[in-house]
# Entry
Amino acid sequence: MIAFGRFIQGLSLGYLGLFFDKAFIVTEETDFYSARPDFVPYGQLMNAGLEHLEECIRLCSIYDFQLPPSWINGYSMTNTDLARLCHSFIARYMVHKARTNSEREAVDWEVVVSHIDQGITEDFAPEGDDNFWWHPIQYSSNWNGWYVVDNKLHGPSDTSNNYNNWLATPFEEKTHFINHSSDRRITGNISGTSDGKYFYYQESQSHYASRGTYVWSRYRFDKFDYQYPSSYGSMPHLTKTEMDMLKAEAFLRGYGGGTKADVAELINRTRVPIGEMEPLDGTESNLDLWKWMCYEKRIETMMTGISYYDYRGWADLLVNGEHVVHVPEGTILHWPVPGKELEILMEDNYTFGGIGQPGATYSLKKSNVSVTPEYIIAARERLNSENLSRQTIPEKR
# Structure
């Protein structure tokens, strides 16, 4: 119980450190009667989370045990299994805490690779029970057409010039396009108008033009459709592919002793058997290996909850002077303490993000949109003029 408790504390504090700029460190020793805990910055939150995970690993090395299956639904984990899971979460947290590429480059990648090598050997995917165990992101992605796939996610596999033309189109004029993809996860054949293994093709989409045609996409992710309307089945959360791509990134950054051929082999593990794409052999340029590594990770880990952390960490990544991924300038780097919480604590509201504002990504690809108060007011008026009652929250919770 103590080892599992350290595991949960590590996960909780780690996620606060990933998502927010600051939060409270609360443990079983926190005394709420004497004073309110002080906010600490995300770096301290992450360090505290990692310490708990390390303590869990230490306890797992001393005691032999097996967790009751109800503690992680679908698993009867031994102490060895739990230690492996902790190692993989440590690797994830060490990298994903970075808000920028410079912070990501400063990560101790040698230590990350060491944790990966001691980590999971198969996907960590608790089972849904349609009651206590369900995955809100994977569940909601299948509901009422809420989600279409970002064109920047599936676009790099396009074999025509449609994606490049879309990138070059002014922001306000962007719309959907046909992806003549070489990836059979995206589409069933090169025409781009048939269903793939993870995505299906839509003749049309229901998103309002007034909300921005730049979000229009012909493709919807249906890999987890089995979780709706009853949320049963496997819920991938931390995958072997995520660990493989972290190792590939370490190699590309010059750490861990890996070669370009090793990077190609790691990418090919899913690229070839699932995507049915041409294998890489390591003779590709650094830029191409970076692009395909980022692409493979984003496709294979979609809806597992890590995309945002990769996007911000890669937003200003340049290889040979070119952006590896395309992230809109002004994207928020981390989230403020929620407004309701600040009001309860009688503290001022604050925020991040916006072009040229604090806590935002910078991109050489300008969006050409000035997000002024007037722009926001006009957008709200457009939304209020529409019948939004049809877009209700799924009734699962």
